[in-house]
Every structure is written in C-alpha cells, then in structure tokens.
Amino acid sequence: MKRGRGISTFLVKCIVVAFFCLLIATYGCTSLRLLADHDQKTEEYVTNLQKKVQSFLTKLESSPQAPESHFSKCSESYEQFKNDISSIRVRVKALSQNELTQEQIEILANTLKEFRELHEKKGFMNPSVVVSFETKVNEIFINILKFEIAKKRG
C-alpha cells in the first residue's frame, strides 16, 4: 500500500514539473518588450539638437562680452532649442513604452530652460558658467543617445 501511494506522489510531482517546464517554454519563446524599439529619427533629432547647442555654447564661451553674446541677441537660439525639443518630445511620446526616453527629454528641456533663465537674468554669461553648463548638458545628451543606441541591440 505504501508503494502505490509513493508512485502516485511521484507521478503528481512529475506532472507539476512538466507543467512548469511547459509554462517556461511557452513564455520563454514569446518576446516581452519592456522598452520601445530604437528610433533612428529620435537619435538623429537629438544629435542635431546637440550640435546646435554645442555651437551656441562655443560662441558664448569664446566671445562672452561680445554684443552677439548678450541674451537679447540669443533669444532666437533659445526659441529654436525649445521648438526642437517640442518636436522630439512629440515623437518620443508617440512611441509606446518610451517613458524613460520621455523623462530624459524632460530633463534636457528643464536644463536648457534653467540656462536660458540665468542668461536672461545676467545678460552676459561668464565663460566658466558656460563650460559648467556645457558639461552638464552634454552628459544629458550622452545619456539620451546611449539609451537610444542600446535599444538597437535589443
């Protein structure tokens, strides 16, 4: 009697193990996407914006007291940055499961806004402030691009 009961316990254990193996095999073969796919256009738009911002900062750093470095002469550049970010924001929000990229774009937008407000308040920017900002904003661009490039790999 003991022997018969042992076989049924063994059989139940085998069935449970087989069920879990089947479950793992079934879900292991399906792809679970937690992130959006790589978006080449987002990568290009962010790269182009980085080039514009870098060019702008280089001009501010190299000619800090020149008339064209005064905020009043730079407001058009800030408006262009704002428009570019808006376009990028719309694009990344249109892609599902892209919340991390959206957050990074918001960080970039807020950082550029803070710099604009400081520039507006001071009129001219000290080169050391420009360099400090350049380091900070480039780190944000690098993080966005690293993440977007990592999505290529899957």
Could you characterize what this model shows?
This protein folds into 2 domains: 1-32; 40-153, Up-down Bundle (Four Helix Bundle (Hemerythrin (Met), subunit A)). The relative contact order is 0.14. The chain has 5 helices and no strands. The protein has 154 residues and is mostly helical.
Secondary structure layout plus pairing:
Layout: H1 2-28, H2 40-62, H3 71-94, H4 99-122, H5 127-153
Helix pairs in contact: 2-3, 2-5, 3-4, 4-5
Descriptive tags:
Four Helix Bundle (Hemerythrin (Met), subunit A), 154 residues, 5 helices, 2 domains, 81% helix, mainly alpha, rod-shaped
Instruction: Kindly report how far apart the N and C termini lie.
Output: 56 Å
Q: How does the helix and strand content classify structurally?
A: mainly alpha
Radius of gyration: 27 Å
User: What share of the residues lie within helices?
Assistant: over 70%
CATH topology of the largest domain: Four Helix Bundle (Hemerythrin (Met), subunit A)
Largest sheet: none
What is the overall number of helices? 5
Spans with pLDDT under 50 lasting ≥5 residues? none
Find the count of extended strands (DSSP E, 2+ residues). Answer: 0
